[in-house]
Design a protein that fits this description.
The protein is mainly beta. It contains 2 helices and 6 strands.
Length: 125
């Protein structure tokens, strides 16, 4: 694992199932990259929003090796290792992606902004 990439994540591509199978728009996901080395660090909310008593979104910075990953907005990231990590088995939605300036085949880091994903109801498939 590269220096600084201290967790492993699964990257999930979120897609829509066809309307004929389920009788309505139903989202589903497929794991594209399993156990991808990455780094995740939280961003602090602004002092102004805290003083106003507003509820702040959990926004994080995400980094991984750009040569191995094709990441898009709306993809999901799930922390799978280490088992003692504070965000284990929690999912994050990608809201913005910044690819490196040089060509991806030569390495470099892919940076993304992600936010904590919370489901309003539990799914039962």
């Amino acid at each position: 694992m590269a220096s600084g990439l201290n967790i492993k994540v699964d990257i999930i591509r979120v897609t829509q199932r066809t309307d004929d199978l389920s009788g309505g728009a139903n989202t589903t996901g497929s794991v594209l990259y399993a156990s991808q080395a990455a780094a995740l660090s939280p961003n602090r909310p602004s002092q102004l929003s805290l003083e106003a008593g507003l509820e702040t979104r959990g926004v994080f910075d995400f980094s991984t090796n750009a040569a191995k990953v094709n990441l898009f907005e709306r993809d999901m990231i799930k922390v799978v290792w280490p088992l003692s990590h504070q965000y284990i088995n929690q999912q994050f939605r990608v809201t913005g992606v910044q690819y490196p300036r040089r060509r991806r085949n030569y390495g470099g880091m892919l940076h993304a902004t992600v936010e904590r994903f919370r489901e309003s109801r539990s799914r039962s498939f």
